[in-house]
Amino acid sequence: MLRVTALALSCLAAGSAFAAESPTYGKQLEGFAYPYPLQHFDFQSQGQALQMGYMDVPAKGKANGHSVLLMHGKNFCAATWETTLDALSQAGYRVIAADQVGFCTSSKPAQYQYSFQQLADNTHALLAKLGVDKAIVVGHSTGGMLATRYALMYPQQVERLAMVNPIGLEDWKALGVPYRTVDQWYARELKLDAEGVRNYERITYYAGRWKPEYERWVQMLVGLNKGPGHEAVAWNSALIYDMIYTQPVVHEFKDLQMPTLLLIGDQDTTAIGSDIASPEVKATLGKYKELGPRVAKMMPQGELVTFEGLGHAPQIEAPGKFHHALIGWLKP
Question: For 2-12+19-330, CATH number?
Fold first, then answer.
């Protein structure tokens, strides 16, 4: 009954934005409109020919000579950075937003050894192809874990590092979250539907609130999963979840030498595996209000901006407030 009531309230809030049936998109998100021209980087990795979709947006205002690399989260794509792409380019930055292998407009290989190191290496190759030797790196959610790994691997090529509600501020395995096999993740991902995604995001990402504009991102995710690449999308998603759980970065935050900013919506409760953790363990997880200050102190040049009352995606919930904080920190 509670689930039905929650869904009814959610639908009421979004009004006609909810589609009766989710649209479907191709295996590489064909059919979904990106806010800027989509390009593809072709490369070889692990004996396979792969592609990464990306947007390369030049400065719209007076160019300041700096480039920003945007890294998306697990349930997000490069397209979800659309307002950040606009804000940064207007402020004079060249902005590159890439889809990682296994996500969105990029390849979904049948077999791939996923690691944050591998994804960082792929992205480094993309930047080399684009002639970008040094970048400001901004990562959201799972992209925050990847941004950390990238900064640790290429410290001389990262001017500054900003992380937006990154997951991985805690080590779930060490805290007692049980292991899910890849097969278990795969079975779970095959069942993905709009109602489940919407309810999860409303509760976990948006502190119980919903706005009609969030629906586009639900349909993007579900439409990709329900399209002709259904099994490949679910399989890659399962492999990626295994990577996230088994490759913590929290223990290495102390090694980040560049200026680092944490931008934290303090009502976020995201924690991988919390749905299968014991009630006692679950009660300790995903407390971003506490995790943000704790992790900022671990970083040699760490700073913290807290967005009170916001959830997992402050750049989507309150773009004006978010971009004011980010661009203000970036300016010399």
Answer: 3.40.50.1820
